[in-house]
Amino acid sequence: LHLFFPAAATDVPVTAPVPEIDSSKCNLCGECGKFCRFGALAVVKDCVLTFPHLCHSCGGCMLVCPQGAIREVPRTIGRITCSRPLSRLVLITGILNEGEVLAPPVIKAAKTLAEGHPLILYDASPGIACPVIETLEGSDYCVLVTESTPFGLHDLRLAAGVAETLGIPAGVVINRSDGKDEETVAFSREHDLPILMTIPFSREIAAVTSRGGLIGRDLPGWEERFTDLASAIPGVNP
């Protein structure tokens, strides 16, 4: 979203706790290595090797160490950028450092920073992996964006299942529609998912977005359609 709403931003680092071994206390018992299912610690002949990039920051190794030889130290894994491109819009972006794989701590930090605002919109990544679950947790409503293709319907089934499991009401937006949305509409009706909006597969729309434009601002009639979309979401007053 920062590509569509450029503005000066402030950065806040995001850290995750990782183990540090006190060699003066460690007796190489191996309990920490046995406990860590992610392979972030390896006990060798005369030391304990740590692999911070594999650590999931659960703190379990510190709890099982009988010698109290492990403590947690912060490691920077990403950052949060905060900007105000519009008077009524605060944009908070989570950025994971290159080579890092644990997005949930960055997402959690971004959500914490956003707390207190009257209306918060989370833009989740595609799929149903951990980053999506972390984004969805605590939400009041989920807008499922899909396409009228077999792949789109497959992913919609998965995402709708996650929203249902988390107890989050949801609706569907069909993007890049080719007019053959029968299967998507049928699935949505079967699962009580309202179709909130249909966006056609349009060269005009693609041209606007490819140059960093906003169709709600740059194409006639679309501001009203997005206002209708917001009005269809319970609790939102556009």
Structure description:
By secondary structure, the chain is of the alpha/beta class. It has a domain at about 1-120: 2-Layer Sandwich (Alpha-Beta Plaits). About 30% of the residues lie in helices and about 25% in strands. It contains nine helices and eight strands. It has helices at about 30-35, 60-65, 105-115, 130-135, 150-165, 180-190, 205-210, 215-220, 220-230; strands spanning about 10-20, 40-45, 50, 70-85, 90-95, 140-145, 170-175, 195-200. The strands form three sheets. It has a three-stranded antiparallel sheet with strand order 1-4-5. It has a three-stranded parallel sheet with strand order 6-7-8, with helices on both faces. A two-stranded antiparallel sheet has the order 2-3. Helix 3 runs parallel beside helix 4. It starts with 8 loop residues before the first strand and ends in a 7-residue tail after the last helix. The relative contact order is 0.10. The mean pLDDT is about 95.
